[in-house]
Write a structure and sequence with these properties.
Chain A: This is DUF3649 domain-containing protein. Chain A: InterPro entries: DUF3649. Chain A: Keywords: Membrane, Transmembrane, Transmembrane helix. The structure holds two protein chains of two kinds. Chain A is mainly α. Helices cover 80% and strands 0% of the residues of chain A. Chain A is built from four helices and no strands. Chain A has helices at 3-8, 14-42, 47-69, 75-95. In chain A, helix 2 packs antiparallel against helix 3 (47-69) and helix 2 packs parallel to helix 4. Chain B has 22 helices and eight strands. Chain B has three domains: 25-45 and 122-229 and 329-380, no CATH class; 53-117 and 238-320, no CATH class; 382-534, no CATH class. An eight-stranded antiparallel sheet of chain B has the order 4-3-2-1-5-6-7-8. The longest helix of chain B has 33 residues, at 348-380. Chain B is of the alpha+beta class. The chains are: A mainly alpha, B alpha+beta. At the A-B interface, helix 1, helix 2 and helix 3 of A face helix 1, helix 7, helix 10, helix 12 and helix 13 of B.
Chain lengths: 99, 534
């Protein structure tokens, strides 16, 4: 990365970018994965339709998560904002859908 | 990040676009060619060019297969049609080993559709090579290549959305064109190509990811079905299995023509495929499939209407109107995106439209990469560019002009390599890869304006050479293709000439480019070295 690009980071240190990248790539994927799984289990429609709906949304959720990770005021907010809903989704998957 | 949303999105757009931009350019260009995969493959097999579709094709194929592979596991006859006027035969021999049977890819042959003569097309991967390259590259383990391409596609999706957010005046910008002004002009070109076909760019990127959902995002399928994606697909797209074992020997019906005629009458469409399971056994099954004007949500592989007949008697067993009627939301949605990506529904005009969108998408990716270099070159204000800038400029050159030049070499090699050469199809691909490598070395050696001029000149010459070589080596060149009114063959050569003209025009523009201000002579020389106009 040239000096130029770093200045464009608006004074954000390298570490912040690395941290945001980490949460964007892996956190974003985790969020997309658990949301897809939770929707597949919980949506009150036919099983196949719930699966396809969840999967269709997954790539959009991932995209929005990446954009979010790079637009928050601090890297910490990015981590919290992505990991919190991921945990909620994981809990829903763990519960295993409406009995 | 204290910056505004728009600034952080601009940063994200720049870097997500650059990091895998070269790969995206290659995916876009080869993927665009894939809309005409069949036409390219046909052009690359001149031995088939004299075949003319005829009514007798099913009978000729029937006789040929009964003679060469009477006791195969199965036959597939692809009847001649506009995009492929020869008859294609495929069959899988039966061996006692079940494992071996599953692995075996089977045999292929091509027949002249009028005379029934066996044709021997030169060995070539044809348009299939470029098509496969756009999602699994070449020479890389398939799974790694697919993941890499999908990661690039995800970057693309992020770049598209962040790019849209970046532009406050997206539609006003769309109508702003400032030619011949370096960075500004590249920005305008990037905006115009992006906005012009934005729905296409989004669709092709998103559907590209969905096609690989089993690999990328299996979690919904995994939690909802015991056996994961297999369970999901079995439920959504149920298929009938072939009978596992051959029956006792029993001859097939003598004449296939009446069954073909009956199928065509039943659906009012020409027959496209004849499939036979266990030919010349007492459990033989004949399935004849027609083409169909289907809704975009209907079509999937094997989803066209068909009649199935008992192989020995020709008695009608089953009428399948094709998919559509019983498909649920999941199946229709999946079909929609897959069909959109593959343009499976497209008539020739729609196919050309998608091809043009692909060209615009390639131009968007290319102008984005060029903009990156142009912006940073301008900010140097005449100073010598550093290593990074030279590297990016060189890689841009190799991925844009270099890839296009290598494609021309691939087509030229198809005409120039001797037909009898061992592993000939691999040599065509080697010619492509070697040409690409040569452009990469050249681009890294001369990553500046003169380098671009040299590659553009080579590009124009190579694409011009393709129809000329075709004229010298075949009798189905542009002039005869026009005389025969063979649209696809003529269009191939015309697109080559168009590519040559485009490269020539780009050469002329770059060669004639003058910096806006008159800098000192030494500064100008340095600027030239930085490849300012690129």
């Amino acid at each position: 990365m040239s000096k130029l690009s770093l200045r464009q980071l608006a004074a954000s240190p390298r570490l912040g970018v690395a941290s945001r990248t980490l949460v964007a790539v892996f956190g974003g994927y985790a969020l997309a994965a658990v949301t897809t799984a939770a929707l597949a289990l919980w949506l009150p429609v036919e099983r196949a339709d719930a699966v396809i709906t969840g999967t269709l949304l997954s790539f959009l959720i991932y995209t929005v998560a990446v954009l979010f990770a790079f637009s928050t005021r601090s890297a910490l907010r990015a981590w919290v904002g992505i990991l919190a809903p991921t945990l909620v989704g994981a809990a829903l998957v763990w519960l295993g859908g409406p009995a | 990040m204290k910056a505004s949303l728009r600034q952080s999105m601009a940063w994200l757009h720049t870097w997500s676009g650059l990091l895998l931009g070269w790969l995206l350019v290659a995916i876009f260009i080869t993927g665009t060619s894939a809309y005409f995969r069949d036409e390219i493959s046909f052009w690359m097999a001149p031995e088939l060019h004299h075949s003319v579709a005829s009514e007798a094709a099913p009978r000729l194929a029937w006789e040929q297969l009964n003679a060469t592979a009477p006791d195969a596991r199965d036959w597939l006859i692809a009847l001649p049609h506009e995009r492929h006027p020869a008859v294609e035969l495929r069959w899988r021999p039966d061996t006692p080993d079940a494992q071996e049977n599953r692995r075996r890819r089977g045999e292929r042959a091509e027949l002249d559709a009028t005379t029934g003569e066996l044709l021997e097309p030169r060995a070539s991967r044809g348009g299939g090579f470029l098509y496969r390259f756009h999602f699994e590259l070449y020479g890389v383990p398939r799974i790694w290549a697919r993941w890499l391409v999908c990661v690039a596609t995800m970057f693309m999706l992020v770049a598209i959305v962040s790019g849209v957010i970046t532009h406050k005046k997206i539609f006003k910008d769309f109508f702003t064109v400032r030619p011949g002004k370096g960075q500004r002009s590249w920005l305008d070109a990037h905006n115009a190509t992006a906005v012009l076909a934005l729905p296409f760019h989004f669709m092709i990127t998103y559907s590209g990811l969905l096609i690989f959902m089993v690999m990328l995002m299996p979690w919904g399928m995994n939690v909802a079905y015991e056996d994961g994606w297999r369970g999901f697909f079995n439920e959504v797209f149920p298929r009938e299995e072939q009978a596992a074992n051959a029956g006792a020997p029993a001859p097939l019906v003598d004449d296939i023509q009446p069954l073909v005629a009956r199928t065509e009458a039943a659906f009012g469409q020409p027959a496209r495929y004849i499939e036979v399971e266990w030919p010349n056994r007492d459990n033989a099954l004949i399935r004849i499939t027609t083409a169909k004007e289907a809704a975009i949500t209907d079509r999937r592989r094997g989803g066209n209407p068909s009649l199935s007949f008992e192989g020995t008697s020709g008695r009608l067993l089953k009428t399948d109107p094709g998919v559509g009627a019983d498909d649920g939301f999941a199946a229709r949605t999946y079909n929609l995106f897959v069909n959109l990506h593959l343009a499976r529904f497209a008539d020739p005009a729609t196919r050309w439209l998608f091809f043009l969108f692909g060209v615009v998408g390639s131009a968007m990716a290319c102008t984005g990469m060029l903009l990156w270099v142009s912006k940073r070159t301008q900010q140097l204000r005449g100073k010598t560019p550093g290593f990074n800038l030279r590297l990016v400029n060189g890689l841009n050159m190799a991925s844009i002009t270099g890839l296009l030049a290598a494609m021309a070499v691939y087509f030229a090699a198809n005409r120039l390599l001797p037909a009898a050469l061992e592993t000939r199809e691999s040599w065509e691909i080697r010619a492509f890869l070697l040409a690409w490598l040569a452009t990469l070395i050249h681009a890294l050696w001369r990553p500046h304006r003169r380098g671009w001029l040299e590659q553009l000149a080579a590009l124009a010459a190579l694409w011009l050479a393709v129809p000329v070589i075709n004229l010298a080596t075949t009798d189905s060149h542009l002039f005869s293709a026009i005389a025969w009114r063979h649209g696809a063959l003529a269009a191939f050569d015309l697109v080559c000439l168009g590519m040559a003209a485009g490269a020539g025009y780009a050469f002329w523009r770059v060669a004639g480019h003058k910096p806006a201000r008159k800098p000192a002579r030494a500064a100008r020389a340095r600027r030239a070295a930085a490849g300012e106009s690129s």
